[in-house]
Design goal:
By secondary structure, the chain is α/β, with parallel strands linked by helices. The chain has 2 domains: 162 residues, Bacterial extracellular solute-binding protein, family 7 (D-Maltodextrin-Binding Protein, domain 2, 3-Layer(aba) Sandwich), CATH 3.40.190; 139 residues, Bacterial extracellular solute-binding protein, family 7 (D-Maltodextrin-Binding Protein, domain 2, 3-Layer(aba) Sandwich), CATH 3.40.190.170. The chain is built from 13 helices and 11 strands. Strand 1, helix 3 and strand 2 form a beta-alpha-beta unit. Helix 1 packs antiparallel against helix 2, helix 2 packs across helix 10 and helix 5 packs antiparallel against helix 13.
């Protein structure tokens, strides 16, 4: 144990040095040096072999089934942490809203430690933190790379929000582009007028309202029932999510529009649960988190083609909305972006830095 403690002290000193470098470099941490990597490896090796640490269990919540890319990542994270710590930190993921919580309750249940870790779907909590809607501004981010470039710039503020709510974000990712899954094909904006559909965030609500549709905010756990009963006739979400929902049972068309990406999402842990962990366990969790984040992001990119094939195989009609209609749509809703940044001035510097990266020719 003395050797472990010494290595942890050394690693802690390295983290302090890295933090100082981050501050000097405007928030970007340099890549770990060979020496630092070796210290991390040694601490991980020690904790995997035989540390004298009391076993701990974390209870996790996720609204998605384990078969989705985000669900798979959540389960993978849980299994790897449990395995890599030899069960000293056992993670128990409860999937498909088994614990009865909704997406918009994620911040609350983690803050109160009703669960120890959860998936945070930030579009569901934009009502509590409007600035998170930056990741949902229509046509502002249109690719995975753009979302992750924006996330890198916004991450210090995200960490502040998490700390305010007694939690820590370990993994970030986004869902694929948002499309309209309805009972008909959309060829012109007139096809949307008066159409009842579920949306999952206030920005999408604003978008479809301006297009003269009839959108409603409905929690994801209630979507299938809402469409089945005719409360709404369709849903705005990703192809991945419509496949998870077995959407071919309740809608007929996938209208490819991609007017939003899926927001910024996290695997988060209660801050007290995190603080209670022995230092060697924290090192393992962070190492696993980095690995799983890479895996989810790769899986997400691959999911669109796979999910489109699954949707079509099960009878959904895949319809590409005409480019002219999308251009007209962008023109109608173009004021949403300006309005968002006017109402959320603290995000303007992040927006400006992001646009420099997005439109850089060098």
């Amino acid at each position: 144990m003395k050797q472990i403690r010494n290595r942890v002290i050394v690693f802690g000193m390295l983290l302090v040095s890295l933090a100082a470098l981050m501050a000097a470099c405007g928030g970007e941490a340099p890549a770990p040096t060979i020496v630092e990597k070796e210290v991390i490896k040694e601490v991980i090796k020690e904790v995997e072999v035989a540390p004298k640490i009391n076993p701990t269990t974390w209870v996790g919540h996720n609204t998605k089934p384990a078969t989705t890319f985000a669900g798979r990542g959540f389960v993978r994270f849980s299994e790897l942490v449990t395995k890599r710590t030899n069960g000293l930190l056992k993670l128990e993921p409860h999937m498909s809203a088994e614990l009865g919580y909704k997406n918009d309750e994620a911040l609350d249940i983690l803050e109160s430690r009703a669960v120890d870790y959860t998936e945070l779907v930030t579009p569901s909590v934009v009502g509590q933190y409007p600035e998170l809607g930056m990741f949902l501004v229509p046509f502002f981010t249109t690719t995975f790379d753009e979302v992750f470039a924006l996330e890198k710039l916004y991450r210090p503020r995200l960490d502040e929000i998490m700390a305010e709510r007694n939690q820590k974000c370990l993994v970030t990712y986004t869902f694929p582009g948002q499309h309209l899954h309805l009972q008909k094909a959309i060829n012109t904006l007139d096809d949307l007028k008066g159409y009842k559909m579920r949306v999952g965030n206030p920005v999408a609500l604003d978008v479809l309202t301006q297009l003269d549709a009839a959108p409603l905010r409905i929690d994801w756990a209630e979507v299938y029932t809402a469409i089945s009963r005719g409360t709404v006739d369709g849903v705005g979400t990703s192809v991945a999510s419509i496949v998870d929902l077995k959407g071919w049972e309740i809608v007929t068309h996938v209208n490819l529009m991609g007017f939003q990406m899926g927001g910024l999402n996290c695997i988060t842990v209660n801050a007290e649960a995190w603080d209670e962990l022995a230092a060697p366990l924290k090192v393992v969790v962070l190492d696993v988190a980095a690995q799983v984040e890479r895996e989810i992001r790769i899986d997400t990119r691959k999911s669109l083609s796979d999910d489109l094939a699954t949707a079509e195989k099960n009878g959904l009609i895949i319809h590409k909305v005409p480019a002219a209609t999308l251009a007209e749509m962008a023109e109608v809703i173009k004021g949403i972006e300006a309005d968002f940044f006017a109402k959320n001035p603290t995000t303007k510097s992040v927006r400006d830095d992001y646009l420099k990266i997005r439109y850089s020719t060098g």
